[in-house]
């Protein structure tokens, strides 16, 4: 049984990661200068920034719904792996720390944010970490 404190920590972490992707995706879609420059620095065209932004918004929203959270984790994990590889290809290993940490957070969320029937729970009122 998970304590109430850990449950609260799990929800806070989940919400923060979801907000991170929602904010990041919206910034890319709106063409915020830092997002545009970041993609250009990595050699990607504007259409790719828009696709990634849309996928980040979709994935961030999916994290909040138990039935589709794992799809959101999978989608966002692929994006984070791509970000890490892109940054490392440009030779800037320090910049890969943030997407790496975010990828780890996503994997933790994916491990705990299972649909009720896969989490060993038959009813929504039963206890689950997140």
UniProtKB/TrEMBL annotation:
Organism taxonomic ancestry: Bacteria, Bacillati, Bacillota, Bacilli, Bacillales
Membrane-protein topology: Multi-pass membrane protein
Cellular compartment(s): Membrane
Alphabetical list of InterPro entries matching this protein: DoxX (IPR032808)
Keywords assigned: Membrane, Transmembrane, Transmembrane helix
Residues in coiled coil: none
Segments crossing the lipid bilayer: 47-65, 72-88, 94-112
Protein name (Swiss-Prot/TrEMBL): Uncharacterized membrane protein YphA, DoxX/SURF4 family
A GO CC term attached to the entry: membrane
Keyword Transmembrane in annotation: yes
């Amino acid at each position: 049984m998970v304590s109430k404190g850990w449950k609260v920590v799990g929800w806070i972490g989940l919400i923060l990661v979801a907000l991170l992707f929602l904010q990041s995706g919206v910034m890319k879609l709106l063409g915020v200068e830092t997002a545009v420059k970041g993609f250009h620095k990595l050699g990607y065209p504007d259409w790719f920034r828009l696709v990634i932004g849309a996928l980040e918004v979709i994935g961030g929203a999916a994290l909040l719904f138990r039935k589709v959270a794992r799809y959101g984790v999978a989608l966002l994990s692929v994006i984070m792996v791509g970000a890490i590889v892109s940054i490392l290809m440009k030779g800037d290993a320090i910049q890969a720390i943030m997407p790496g940490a975010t990828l780890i957070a996503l994997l933790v969320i994916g491990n705990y944010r299972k649909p009720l029937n896969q989490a060993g729970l038959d009813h929504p009122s039963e206890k689950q970490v997140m």
